[in-house]
Amino acid sequence: MSQHILIVDDEKNIAISVDYLLRREGFEVSVAHDGEEGLRLIREERPDLILLDIMMPKLDGFQVCETVRQDPALADIRIVMLTAKGRDAEKEKGLALGADAYITKPFSTRELISQVKALLEPSA
Question: How far, in Å, CA of 48 to CA of 53, rounded?
Answer without folding.
Answer: 17
